[in-house]
Structure formats: structure tokens, C-alpha cells
Amino acid sequence: MAALVSRLVWLQLQLLVACWASADLPSRRFEYKYSFKGPQLVHSDGTIPFWTHAGNAIPSADQVRITPSLKSQKGSVWTRSKLSFENWEIEVTFRVTGRGRVGADGLAIWYTAGQGLDGPVFGAADSWNGLGIFFDSFDNDGKKNNPVILVVGNNGNQLYDHQNDGATQALGSCLRDFRNKPYPVRARIIYYRKILTVMIHNGFTPNNDDYELCARIENLSLPSEGYFGISAATGALADDHDVLSFLTFRLFEPGKPVEPADSTIPQEEKEKYREEYENFQQALDKKKEEFQKEHPDVQGEQVDDMFESVNERELRQIFEGQNRIHLEIKQLNRQLDMILDEQRKYMNLVSEEISKKGSNVVSQMGQLPQAELDNVVKYQQEVLRHVGELKNSVTNALSQAAQLPGGATGGYEMTQHFNDIKEHLHVVKRDLGALVQRNVNIEKPKCPELPPFPSCLSTTHFFMFVAFQTVLFIGYIMYRSQQEAAAKKFF
Ligand code: MAN
Ligand code: CA
Ligand code: CA
């Protein structure tokens, strides 16, 4: 009993400690405007969304080669806009690779008041205002203390001592060999409550948790607004300096609510829409330029107005077309529902009559064998099943039409949806064809007169009606697609 009580107390204590520890942890929010990562890191024109690159940097789909392993190269990548987060965390994943036992010169991660697009400090500007974290591969001062990781602050007035590997200028450092590792190396840099913490994942494992502390600097004041950047350089010796991802998170004090950003939309979706929007804008700008070239007399603002209205008209047309399709499919669905209902009533009547008149009907049917009677019933059931399938198919088409994107969210997706609807209608048509074929093929037993039925839609009329509707609808869809295509060509 005593053991149980002490165990309970121990558990409660642990829980308290855990609560207290987690209460002190900041919450983080991913900031896509200050981040990049594969697998679609670049736009089709080779630029990185929200970032600028300079010098010998080569962005590609899954990484940015800040420098290739050629002599005297310099490259850098900078956020296009300044950020003003009081607290932040970044996670940079990179590889430094070279064939030599010794490589050069290294890579730097920056948070500075201005973009240091070019310069002598690992490919970026000297006299920076802010923070530089240097992954210095080459031992310029010959003290056998490289590769090394240095944290160097600057208020905009200091020049970096490259010849001495900044030996007297570092706020903190750690010796780490980050070259030629089996997995990418990762740096996690946290700036929280004026404390800078640099954690390094040495790239020996793919494991997410293998970070080690490199440096911790307290009371560090950084510019309230700044750019993130990453740069690299080579000299007489050279390495490839490749950055796979740069992820930025804004940190929020515990208890303080995370500002409601547009975070309810998944990141990939936002990226996709943004990219589509940017592509759309680019195409529009190009058209405007072409138009301006052809009509130099028209004022720039007038051109803007003109193209804006074209843009809006396209959106309205897409929206209206979509609405019409939606309504037409709805109508078709309603009609199918009615037909299905009539068919069911008819079947019920048949079976009721048969059971009512029993042997009487069978005898009325004269020589009609039981097997053939079964055939008639089976055939009717099959008709019902097929109509049911048809209805499902139309319902699917209807739901697909309802999901059509509501704005300029991509011609490609729009075409896909239309294709899907066409596909469904194709199935409807094929089923109808098969049904009609069966109708012809089945050798109809000579039925004796059945009790009189209420006058309702005949099967042939029904098929003709549905086929007519389908053909009408397919025609309409094709007409719409052509119209859309023509509208797009206009852009
Ligand atoms: C040369 C110079 C140095 C550089 C080394 C290693 O000595 O370009 O600045 O650090 O090569 O690349
Ligand atoms: Ca060096
Ligand atoms: Ca050195």
C-alpha cells in the first residue's frame, strides 16, 4: 500500500514538472514567406518564391546551390521582405561537399538589417548590422581549428577578420566537421527572449532528434527588423555549398495567443494557390507588356484598367458556366429520380397482380413456362438496377460539378473536372446502350394480357428520353469546354 501511495505521489510530481516545463515553452508558427524547401523550391522562371538570389547561386527544384565547387565563387539568397518578429526559430538543412580532404571557404546564415547580397564575408557584405553564423571550412590562420562554427555579431561598424577566421570576434563557437556527411547537416537557431541558441545536427543519422548544443549567447540585441539570408564562398579551394531547406518559425510567448494567421489553410494548398496566382499575374503582365509595345500611344493606367476588366470578365464567365452545368445536372438527376420511382411502382403492381391472381395468371399465360416468367421478372429487376446505377453516376457527376473551383484557381484543375464529368456521362451513355441492346436481344416471351396497368412512361420512351438528355448534356459540356479554351487563349 505504501509503495502504491509513494508511486502515485511520484507520478503526480512528474506530471507537475512536465506541466511547469511545457508552460514555459513558446509556441511556434511556420512562416512561409521566410522559408523555402523542396520538392518544388523554384518557380518555372528559376526564382525562389519570396527570396532573391545573387552571385553564383543556382536554385533548383530541391535545393539551392549557393556555390558550385569552382574556384572563387560567391553566392547568396535573401528573404525579399524584412521580418519583425521579436522571437524566432530557423532550421537550415544543408550539405557541404568536396573531393578534397580540405575544402573552402564555407557557408554563413544571416539575420541582418539589410540584404548583404555580395561581399567578402562568405559571399556576403561586410560591416553587417546583425548576426552571422559562419560554417568556416578553411583554416586561414593555420591554427588547425577548422572546420568551425562561429557566431559573430556586428553593429554595422566592424570589418570581419577573414585571415584569422574571426578568432577574436566570435560571441560563441564550436568545433564541428560539417563537410561530406552521410546525411544533410542541420542548424537550428533559436532567438527567444534575447537569448540565441545554436543547435547542430551533425548529419551522421537521419534522426530528427540528434541535435547538439553548439553555442548559447545571452542578452543579445538584434535589429528589430531584418532579413534572413544564407551565403557561401570558395577561394583557391572549393566545395559545393547546397541548402536543401530554410524553415522559419515565429515564436510566441507561452500564454500569449498565436496571432490568427491564415493558418487554417494547409501550407501546400496556400503554396499552390500562391504559385498559380503568381503565374497568372506573370502571364497578365506579359500580355500587358506586349499590348503596350504594340500600342505605345495608350497610357499605362488605361492598359491596367483594360486588362483588369478582362481578368474579371473571365472569372465571371467561369463562374456562370459552372453554375449552369450545376443546374443542368441537378435537373437531370431529378428526372432520373422520377423515372426510377415510376419503374418501382410498375414493378410493385406487377408483383401484386401476380400474387393476387396466382395460379389464375399462370393459367392465363397459357403455355408460358415458369422459367420464362422468371426471365421477365429478372429482366425488369435488371432494368431497375441499371437505372439505379445511372442515377448514382449522375449523382457523382453532380457532386463533381459542385466541387468545381470557384475562382481562378487553375485552368488545369477545371479541365480535369470537366473530363471527370465527361467520363461519368460516358459511363451513363454506355450503360444505356447496353440496356437498349439487351432490350433488343432478349427474346420476348409472348405474354398473355396482363391486368391493365396505369398509363406511365414506356421503357422505350424512357430510354429515348434519357439518351436525348445525355446527348444534350455532352454537347453542352463540349461547347462550354471549347468556350473556356477560347477564353484562355485570349490571355
Ligand atoms: C585563398 C584565398 C583565401 C581563401 C583560400 C581558400 O588563399 O582566396 O581567401 O580562404 O584561398 O579558398
Ligand atoms: Ca576560414
Ligand atoms: Ca583557423
Describe the structure.
The protein has 491 residues and is α+β, with helices and mostly antiparallel strands. The chain folds into 4 domains: 28-252, Jelly Rolls (Sandwich); 267-307; 308-343 and 383-407 and 414-441; 461-491. The chain contains 7 helices and 16 strands. It has helices at 2-23, 267-294, 300-357, 359-364, 370-402, 411-441, 459-490, and strands at residues 27-30, 36-37, 51-55, 58-59, 64-67, 74-79, 88-97, 106-112, 129-136, 148-155, 170-175, 185-192, 195-201, 211-217, 227-233, 240-252. The strands form 2 sheets. Strands 1, 2, 4, 5, 7, 12, 13, 14 and 16 form a 9-stranded antiparallel sheet that branches. A hairpin with a 4-residue loop joins strand 4 (58-59) and strand 5. The radius of gyration is 36 Å and the shape is elongated. The relative contact order is 0.10. Mean pLDDT is 77; it is low at 15-21, 361-367, 404-420, 442-448 and 451-457. Bound molecules: alpha-D-mannopyranose and calcium ion (2 copies). One calcium ion (CA) binds at residues 139, 141, 143, 145-146, 165.
